[in-house]
């Protein structure tokens, strides 16, 4: 009995100490930022690290888009065309990497050449690129294909600027420098001492949240100063909290569904078109409490966006399936030569809206006799790259450089780096070739419209929604203004209260 | 051969067999990691890149040669380089393992500390308040996924009451995950301990003890505790296995950089060195626990009749 009483006492002491420590006040911490994504590494050539590192405020491009989506110089001062395939880019003077080394033409050229040699996505618009430092601030750029607007090319996320150190690692020039990095979990950022206004910038702890509800709860619990990408269903509740500011904003992202053209059931374009027609986009918008039905590949505020909402026509969808040989059995399920029409539809938790859309898509395909299995996968890029899916709900910024060409070139051109659907069409590629020689924005918009029309017909993708996103802010960052994407979550000015 | 020597031999043999089986299963997983890396990292898909990666990751060598090479390096402390992050796997595990182990071990340690008194009082008064409460707790905990319960506790304790700071990076951020593991094990261990205590009350020697003038609680403690402890320790083994799996889910929920979170991110990338290292760590964890349990039971001596 004494032993038992001792055990009881020990338990009580343990519990009491836990409860006591739990309420200990903490000293002032760095700004705490939470989001559903994080760079998978610090190598800017790997995958989409270029995008993530710029988004975290670590890296910069030669050109970028500003808050209004306008293409502006960033590390570059200007660019001028020399001939059909050659450009001369002037760098801004006085810029430094976070180790104090100058952002020179030689360093930038070496970094960009390293990227183009190691990341196919960097070749999407201009083909192979060659860089030559002409003087400390001038780079001669030679492209394989004519590029009518080199500024847009250098605003593309793979072409982030960095200096290559002797050990092969990269050093960047953005407002924040990496102090420590835990893959898949956390980055500790400090102000880059060589970036203007460093003394006004607090350190930041940037954390990845694998669960959108946990992100929301962390904000509500006062554990975050900025929660980026809050799930729509939590917004009404969060807006009632007087300690928080919730800001909603339209984004350049589009929600879309990749249709894997390599899968037996989806090799026939009629089946893919049927799926595209079966989807009622207004129901999807309702499911995520916001957003507009997509008109095509681009958010409606871009001048090159489509004007008409994508149609829904269940009868036409059924007719297309019938014509493709997928007939309805007595059980209401479609099959062809004994094989049922079953699709695996994926989404990923880093975009909670997509997860919320999954059951709606399933419900909309069911009346057509299409059986759907839904799955949520963690590593979207890896799974998409493996091709192990039928339909993949995806969020993609389709005009990150303020121009329509990059998305179409990198995602649907035959063999392109981000072509996850296996789509291959010489006719479509020929349409895209027009981007290489046309610099007039109106005519580029026409090419984009023509290319989208071809995508509507071949349906390797179904454009679903132009969403609205939400950020939650504590009082420490209530001045934060979200830009129209997650390409610039952390920037030189994030509206710190101090 | 002494008991510790037997256990050590069995543990090492089991680890070798597990390592070979795991290596075979992981190598046989569908989808080639090189193909995935080339597409995920947007690498040029030319023959040179493919051959370079295959050589770098030793995928161009026969299975047995690869296994032998991996094993030789593994025991020397070279666990390879992660295909996905490019970082040494051992360093990554050493950085992450303390967190996972702290979570799992703290939860597992807390559970029996509470299970003994709760189980004892539940058995002392069957159908009494504590007995009914622990039964309800057991049913509830077994029925509810730990992720869901975690979200509820986050909301109540972290948001509404502000008793805890669930996402801090100091040890207080571990309170909820540890509590969730402890709660699950507590529910199971309490019921197991109670059941075996009650079994003792039906034995003749227990009635004799009462006839000799011992109170029910004293008789239960003197004659039932050791008996019930056996069953609880055996159940603890199963709980330890459960804790390994649940740490991964809790690490993702609470954003904790442990080995479970690392595993989740590594599966789709077919990151062979990480997957293999995870299997080995978990296997070692379970085998060491099993050995610990066997030693404990040996130390307790033969089970009382």
TrEMBL record, chain A:
The keyword Signal applies. InterPro entries: Peptide/Ni-bd, SBP_5, SBP_5_dom. Residues 1-27 form the signal peptide. Its main location: periplasm. It is found in: Periplasm. Pfam families: SBP_bac_5. Keywords: Signal. Residues 71-415 form the Solute-binding protein family domain. Belongs to the bacterial solute-binding protein 5 family. PANTHER family: OLIGOPEPTIDE-BINDING PROTEIN OPPA, PERIPLASMIC BINDING COMPONENT OF ABC TRANSPORTER. This is ABC transporter substrate-binding protein. It comes from Kaistia terrae.
From TrEMBL, chain B:
Residues 97-293 form the ABC transmembrane type-1 domain. Gene3D superfamilies: MetI-like. Coiled coil: none annotated. It is found in: Cell membrane. Keywords: Cell membrane, Membrane, Transmembrane, Transmembrane helix, Transport. The chain crosses the membrane at residues 103-124, 136-159, 171-193, 242-263, 275-300. It comes from the Bacteria. InterPro entries: BPD_transp_1_N, MetI-like, MetI-like_sf. It holds the Pfam family BPD_transp_1_N. It is a multi-pass membrane protein. The keyword Transport applies. Belongs to the binding-protein-dependent transport system permease family. This is ABC transporter permease. It comes from Kaistia terrae.
């Amino acid at each position: 009995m004494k032993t038992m009483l001792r055990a009881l006492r020990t338990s009580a002491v343990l519990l009491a100490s836990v409860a006591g420590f739990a309420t200990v006040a903490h000293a002032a911490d760095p700004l705490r930022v939470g989001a559903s994504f994080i760079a998978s590494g610090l190598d800017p050539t790997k995958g989409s690290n270029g995008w993530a590192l710029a988004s975290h405020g670590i890296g910069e491009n030669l050109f970028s888009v500003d808050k209004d989506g306008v293409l502006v110089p960033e590390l570059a001062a200007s660019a001028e065309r020399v001939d059909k395939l050659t450009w001369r880019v002037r760098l801004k003077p006085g810029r430094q990497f976070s180790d104090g080394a100058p952002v020179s033409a030689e360093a930038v050229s070496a970094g960009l050449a390293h990227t183009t040699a190691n990341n196919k996505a960097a070749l999407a618009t201009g083909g192979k690129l060659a860089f030559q430092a002409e003087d400390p601030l001038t780079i001669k750029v030679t492209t394989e294909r004519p590029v009518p607007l080199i500024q847009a090319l250098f605003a593309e996320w793979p072409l982030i600027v960095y200096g290559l150190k002797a050990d092969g690692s990269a050093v960047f020039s953005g407002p924040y420098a990496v102090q420590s990095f835990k893959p898949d979990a956390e980055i500790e950022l400090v102000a880059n001492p060589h970036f203007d206004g460093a003394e006004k910038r607090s350190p930041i702890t940037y954390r990845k949240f694998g669960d959108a509800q946990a992100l929301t709860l962390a904000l509500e619990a006062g554990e975050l100063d900025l929660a980026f990408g809050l799930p729509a269903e939590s917004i009404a509740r969060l807006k009632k909290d007087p300690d928080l500011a919730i800001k909603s904003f339209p984004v350049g992202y589009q929600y879309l569904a990749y249709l894997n053209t390599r899968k037996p059931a989806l090799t026939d374009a009629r089946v893919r078109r049927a799926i595209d027609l079966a989807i009622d986009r207004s129901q999807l918008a309702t499911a995520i409490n916001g957003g507009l039905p997509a008109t095509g590949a681009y958010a409606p505020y871009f001048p090159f966006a489509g004007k008409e909402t994508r149609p829904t026509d269940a009868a036409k969808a059924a007719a297309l399936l019938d014509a493709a040989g997928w007939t309805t059995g007595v059980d209401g399920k479609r099959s062809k030569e004994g094989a049922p029409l079953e699709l695996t539809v994926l989404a990923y938790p880093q975009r909670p809206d997509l997860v919320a859309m999954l059951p709606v898509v399933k419900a909309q395909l069911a009346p057509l006799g299409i059986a759907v299995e839904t799955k949520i996968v963690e590593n979207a890029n890896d799974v998409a790259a493996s091709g192990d899916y039928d339909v993949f709900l995806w969020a993609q910024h389709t005009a990150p450089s303020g121009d329509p060409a990059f998305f179409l070139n990198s995602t649907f051109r035959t063999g392109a780096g981000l072509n996850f659907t296996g789509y291959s069409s010489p006719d479509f590629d020929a349409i895209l070739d027009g981007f290489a020689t046309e610099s007039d924005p109106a005519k580029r918009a026409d090419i984009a419209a023509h290319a989208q029309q071809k995508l509507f017909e071949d349906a390797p993708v179904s454009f679903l929604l132009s969403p609205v996103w939400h950020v939650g802010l504590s009082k420490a960052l209530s001045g934060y203004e979200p830009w129209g994407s997650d390409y610039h979550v952390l920037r030189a000015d994030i509206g710190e209260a101090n | 051969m002494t008991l510790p020597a037997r256990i050590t031999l069995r543990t090492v043999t089991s680890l070798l067999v597990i390592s070979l089986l795991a290596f075979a299963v992981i190598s046989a997983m569908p989808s080639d990691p090189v193909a995935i890396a080339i597409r995920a990292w947007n690498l040029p898909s030319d023959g040179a890149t493919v051959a370079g990666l295959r050589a770098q990751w030793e995928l161009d060598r026969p299975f047995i040669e690869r296994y032998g090479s991996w094993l030789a390096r593994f025991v020397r402390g070279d666990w390879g380089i992660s295909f996905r992050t490019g970082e040494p796997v051992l360093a990554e595990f050493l950085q992450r393992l303390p967190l996972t182990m702290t979570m799992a071990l703290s939860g597992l340690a807390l559970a029996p500390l509470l299970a003994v008194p709760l189980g004892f009082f539940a058995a002392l008064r069957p159908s009494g308040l504590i007995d009914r409460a622990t039964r309800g707790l057991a049913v509830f905990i077994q029925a509810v996924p730990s992720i869901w319960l975690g979200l509820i506790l986050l909301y109540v304790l972290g948001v509404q009451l502000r008793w805890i700071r669930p996402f801090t990076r100091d040890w207080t951020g571990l309170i909820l995950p540890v509590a969730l593991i402890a709660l699950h094990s507590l529910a199971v261990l309490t019921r197991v301990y109670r059941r075996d205590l009650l079994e003792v009350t039906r034995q003749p020697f227990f009635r004799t003890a009462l006839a000799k003038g011992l109170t029910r609680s004293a008789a239960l403690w003197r004659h039932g505790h050791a008996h019930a402890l056996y069953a609880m320790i055996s159940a603890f083994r199963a709980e330890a296995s459960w804790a390994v799996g649940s740490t991964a889910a809790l690490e993702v929920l609470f954003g904790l950089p442990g080995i479970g979170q690392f595993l989740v991110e590594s599966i789709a990338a077919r990151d062979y060195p990480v997957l293999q290292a995870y299997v080995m760590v978990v296997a070692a964890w379970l085998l060491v626990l099993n050995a610990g349990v066997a030693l404990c039971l040996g130390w307790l001596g033969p089970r009382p009749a």
